[in-house]
# Entry
Amino acid sequence: MAESPAPDPRAGLPAMDRLLALPAVAALEAAWGRTTVRTEARQVLADARAGLASGSPVPGVDALIQTLTHRLEALPGRGPRALFNLTGTVIHTNLGRAPLPAAAIAAMATAAGTTDLEFDLPSGRRGERDHHVERLLCELTGAEAATVVNNNAAAVLLLLNTFAEGREVPVSRGELVEIGGSFRLPDIMRRAGARLVEIGTTNRTHASDYTESIGPETGMLLKVHPSNYVITGFQQEVTIGELAGIAHAHGLPLGWDLGSGSLVDLSRFGLEREPTPGEALTAGADLVTFSGDKLLGGPQAGIIVGSRSAVEALRRNPLKRALRVDKVTLAALAAVLRLYGRDETLRQELPVLRLLTRTQTEIRALAYRLRTPLAEALGPPWEVEVVDLASQIGSGALPVASLASAGLAIEPLLERGRNAALEQLHRRLRRLPTPVVGRIQQERLLLDLRCLEDEPGFLAQLPEIAAA
Ligand SMILES: *Cc1c(COP(=O)(O)O)cnc(C)c1O
# Structure
């Protein structure tokens, strides 16, 4: 008697139509969009078929849906996600810089609808979008006028293009900086149409270097905060006061790119002193530019404060229109600036300051609370230890200042393959619903807990680490 052929295992797989008709898949379609779900579902079925051909068992419908869900969750481009920044760098450019205060988040939600962005409610006429923040910025810095653009790079671009297009700008060689991958001062100057005249040397620039470089072609003088590096030792720079004297004697405007630009004297909070925009203006700068999302603790923005006539000149430049900020940014910035109006609550309400001033004792106590739950969730071969660490401010602010911190060091008790195991664990942590980003150093995964405020949220994810 002829043997009956073995049943085709592929018959056990649901057809695409049946899979798509399942309520669970319909729910995925509602969340992810039809095209995306169909593309991924087709791939899940193709993978399952390939698996069968190589002898894997027929996956059940629940397993297929789970695979589909995982594929969808791993897709890139779903928009920025919330995560735990345990890198030890507080204002981390790759991780969205300053976390915003609750007041700013609420203001952003309100502004997201229809607003009086460029509308003057009392008169019913067209308004000016800068007015939402100008008064506050002037109050906090003593400036006559203020304007806001997309970021500080845009602020510097606008400044140079307005006052020095087709003209020369002498800049000290000690200030020709690169900040992060894409902001290099000489490149920005070229794009602004300004001609860079390099003066002085890397470590020393004198007043005479400026005066000797000024000629009929000079458009403005510019000072740049070196931000992410410091020059120590045999060093000299020209103070802003001296520069103001030179600029104004020649009828030139003086700009200062402050970079991080804190609105308050940080030494009050035990941090290193940085010149504030207000001090820069008092010392004689006509225009000062700084970022909204570095030490200021607000949204991404480039803030420019200075004399009324200089700010008016910036507003008349058509580039201002191309670099302007949206209503949501303005709402967040206004809310953050209002926090600066109340000194006694600022440190508590502004996340950047709260995180930068957190004490090592407090962070260490948090590390001791998390050590055992984390060790238990990880299981062997992992060992978890409480360690003292040094956090950084980040974003080029006070580059050599480090903040005494604490955290957890995770180490694999393995003879070999320690680095691969660490990389794999780090990847697992980055795949959590709220990803955890730490840093690997000397064969340990370090979680600096300075920026961990949502302790219950962190603990709630531990079972997922165990399951992974
Ligand atoms: C950070 C920085 C910039 C760039 O600012 P963004 O807001 O990131 O565009 C420019 N100049 C200096 C000195 C900086 O520190």
User: Anything to note?
Assistant: The chain has a mean pLDDT of 93. The longest strand covers residues 382-392.
